[in-house]
Design a protein that fits this description.
Blueprint: H1 10-21, H2 29-57, H3 65-85, H4 99-105, H5 122-131, H6 176-181
Helix pairs in contact: 2-3, 2-4
């Protein structure tokens, strides 16, 4: 949320933040188009497949072996493209980091949890190191990130349900069937899992 503006898709949120703060959105019109191209590619080809593969390999859900194999095949194809691109490019959309890198890198930090070997992708590993260095420091040249009130480990168990904050007011999802069968409140987590092109973004 940003005032009256409410966005749900990560690509739209990143684009809005880049425009608002004037950073990581691309230096010219062509680079901004390249950023958009990679954001769409990430949502359609990389994140959905790699995220789902990690989900199944971590045992969060059970799927038929042929389904997992199909997702793994698509994931490997996406990683092959990323490995090839990062062989000759320091960053995805140009010579400096953009929201394209921020979007695409998320699940790639967790290849081992998807049953994949990070060392098999040396160019991708080098690219990840350019986004955040070995000490977890940002590479934007703007100094260290401001420290929050508390630090948290990257990998930690979720807090118990009774310790979490209560949900807020009920949200109107804009789809009557979902309002009836999937009551959703502010602060509540809701996952939508489906294959490509079935309408997740529309929802």
């Amino acid at each position: 949320e940003d005032g009256a503006l409410v966005l749900a898709q990560s690509g739209a949120i990143l684009t809005h933040l880049a425009a608002r703060f004037g950073r990581f959105g691309g230096r010219d019109a062509e680079e901004r188009l390249r950023v958009l191209e990679w954001l769409l590619w990430d949502n359609h080809r990389l994140m959905g497949n790699l995220g789902s593969l990690r989900y199944f390999r971590r045992g969060f859900a059970i799927a038929a072996p042929d389904t997992v194999q199909f997702i793994e095949t698509r994931t490997l194809a996406s990683l092959a493209k990323l490995e090839s691109h990062t062989a000759s490019q320091r960053f995805l959309a140009g010579g400096e980091p953009t929201i394209a890198d921020i979007s695409c890198c998320a699940y790639v930090f967790w290849l081992d949890q998807a049953g994949l070997e990070p060392a098999s992708y040396p160019n991708i590993q080098a690219w990840l190191g350019r986004i955040v260095d070995a000490f977890g420091q940002p590479i934007a040249g703007k100094g260290p990130l401001p420290q929050g009130q508390a630090s948290y480990p990257l990998r930690a168990a979720p807090p118990p349900a009774h310790a979490r904050g209560r949900g807020g007011a009920r949200l109107d999802l804009g789809v009557k069937a979902m309002n009836v069968f999937t009551t959703t409140c502010r602060g509540q987590r809701l996952g939508i899992f489906a294959g490509s092109g079935v309408g997740k973004s529309v929802l």
